[in-house]
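User: Can you predict the 3D structure for this chain?
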Amino acid sequence: MKTNLLSVNNIFTALIGISFASFAAATGAQPLKVFVLAGQSNMVGVRSEITALPENLKTENPDILFFDGQTWAPMKPGNTEAKGFGPEISFARKIHDAWKEPVGIIKHSKGGSMLASNWSPRSTKENLLAELLARVKAAQAAREIEIVGVLWMQGESDAVNEKRAALYANNLDLLIERFRSEFNNPALLFLCARVNPPEDRYPTAAIVRKAQEECTYAHYRLIDCDDLEKVGDNLHYNTRGIIELGNRFADAALKPKIAATP
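Assistant: Here is the predicted structure, written as structure tokens:
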């Protein structure tokens, strides 16, 4: 009889456990893993065309979520920017396919923005960094999330003059430190796409590229963009270029972390 009672108790306990697990899953008790995307026009994806997207990237996936500033919803081309799409479309799909679990995207980017001013933690001008951090807080209020990485596609505007370019290395360090402090994660993954604007119009591009290449922070990874396809201005990536940029961000994010001092 004791054996039977134990069996009943075990079954009851198991059912309770399953019920709680189901409730946790239904209520989103597990934090949603989220990547934060920031930068300027190539992060926006200003020259992308939704009509040129492969069909598998046009469809919504309920496990790939985008925060629009107010609510979380399934991500799709056209709801991440006023029109078109950025690298988040292919990036999030590849991450989800690898992880087999929900993934979230928070994005804030603006064409022509500068690290020296708009993204600087010390700037008092229009501060896109402050706006992005406010968006993250709103996303955290909407549901429980875990920020697992930052994607950075920016630098062309700082490559226009020597003063801004010379400050890029220090400003990049400050940006990484600010993100890690705000998100309370000294080992936060930071993925930086190396810019490659035409040097005839961006004469100090080499200085910015060098700063991006020589950043020595742990868990910092550089994305090579030199062979990505562009439109006729030789500055902005076309649809295929944006898709490949997202894939390269994902490949870098999926590499295992190497233990190091942040």
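The radius of gyration is 21 Å. The chain has eight helices and seven strands.
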